[in-house]
Design brief:
The structure holds two protein chains of two kinds. Chain A is α/β, with parallel strands linked by helices. In chain A, the strands form four sheets. A seven-stranded parallel β-sheet of chain A has the order 8-9-7-10-11-6-14, with helices on both faces. In chain A, strands 15-20-19-16-18-17 form a six-stranded parallel β-sheet, sandwiched between helices. In chain A, β1 and β2 form a beta hairpin. The N and C termini of chain A lie far apart (87 Å). By secondary structure, chain B is α+β, with helices and mostly antiparallel strands. Chain B is built from one helix and three strands. In chain B, strands 1-2-3 form a three-stranded antiparallel β-sheet. Chain B starts with 11 loop residues before the first strand and ends with a helix. Classes of the chains: A alpha/beta, B alpha+beta. The interface between A and B is medium-sized, with 26 and 21 residues.
Amino acid sequence: MKKVELVKELLKITFNGLGFNMNLNLVKSLSGRKFVGKTRPVYWTCPPSFENIEKLIEWEFNLDKKVITLFDKMNEKVEVQIDSIPGFERMYPFQLKGVEFLEMMGGRALIGDEMGLGKTIQALGYLALHPELRPAVIICPASLKLNWEKEIWNWMQVPALVLSGNYKKLGFNHLENIIVINYDILDSWADFLVSLNPSCLIIDEAHMIKNQKAKRSKAVKKLAKKVDHVIGLTGTPIINRPSEFFAILNLLNKNEWPSFWGYAHKYCGAKHNGFGWDFNGSSNVEKLNEALKRTMIRRLKSEVLPELPAKVRTVIPLEITNRAEYNKAVQDFADLMDSDSDDTPPAVQLTRIEALKQLVVEGKIKACINWISDFLESGEKLVVFCTHKKVVNQLMDEFGHMGVKVDGSVKTTDRHESVRLFQEHPECKVFIGNIKAAGVGLTLTAASSTAFIELPWEPAAADQAEDRVHRIGQEADSVNAYYLLGQNTIDMEIAELLDEKRKVLDSVLDGKETEETGLLTELMNRIMGD
Amino acid sequence: MARNCFVCSGELEIIDVDDCSITVYCDRCGEEFRIEPDGLNEGGMEWVEAMQMKEDGLI
């Protein structure tokens, strides 16, 4: 007798007689199996995952009707087709497919697309498709909170409730809201968020809950427990470091990914090194890929290239830490401008603008470092552009162990060595350079993303810097340019002006550029509110 | 000027400037460098002065 039944959402496995020992060894290899020896006959249980049922069929166990129906259901792919989502008509077809996948999985899945393919938009598309799933909670790294707020507003035209600091009582109704919170403070807000009974949870950079014992992972688990719709987002390839993904996979689909022990032994190249188990490797990669298809959708840039534009520019708004000081400096600036005569030299105005720019950099540098660290988690390389040596050095202090710089003081021969290292060495992940000094003539095609921390005053300088990561001569390429800007600061004004200039330049065939002083004047007018 | 040539320690002369950089030239070895506005290690004031000089057509 070798039979399998479905009892209380678990597979109940009973066997005896001929081949008992062989069957015992087979059943012991099932993921999440448990022995129940109190009753007679004794039996084993395990989660009704696709993989477990598949194995039991292979071992010629007799499955009862309920198990067969469940397995057929798992096999049957219910294709979902969404024609369009109101407000999301600008979505690329592959992004719409991502939303269809979420829909097909009943809103419990992982989007593992490569960086820059718009995982945020796909998650928001799902929320727009289901306005009944509120409140929805989005958990993300602190450096991405304002970006989520911006994207929610851009795509859905609703204000998000962005939580910051430790828990404090909020004096209004949040039930209709989309709430954005960062991992670091989640523990403090977890009880409050649970009390709201959220209908949907989006976990951005989901690999951040890799350590199951960490406070943040426990808080995410606590919150996810009673939520039916949980969407994970990550650009980090699971295949390279499978052990880091068990927590999120288990959270999304307990039946498919029931036990770390089984998962680690199967996919993490488990090795006993004499002191303990090492799960940092990977094994059975093809099987893992196959199994992941039941939980995750992942597309690479190269796969969806024809759908992508050559350049995707994204503004990442960051909160500055010296807001009071910055506001005071803007006020002083306005007072000085009021008292200026018409012949105040441009250099004086320039000095003042520079002082504001430097204050913004000081205030956002920590957030920039966090954003870059989060980006690098994806395993991709990144080219970072800034203007000042001070900023280059600050970044090198942080990323010097995994990056190179090209600033003005680096000799030509050394520049080539830096470029070669970045292009060829797999562990060299960051290139840091001055927009002009490193923005022209160097080929940095090992990366397909750039990040700007300080901005030039001419669009051409930014364009040229962006083009360092373009593969010359290859039209089929798409690069991402991230602009890390201080929220509500002069950064935003400069970026808007650059964009306006770009549009003018693009529309004029012989594209004669506006004078640099033109931008300075426009900037002054903007700050003065003209 | 606070900074000497990165190759031969000769004296550097500012020959051009823009919003993000200063171009300096070493008369002794003939090397040219494009450096950051604060690349002369004096807090960036040389850059402001150079921008003014460029505005006045002096460089």
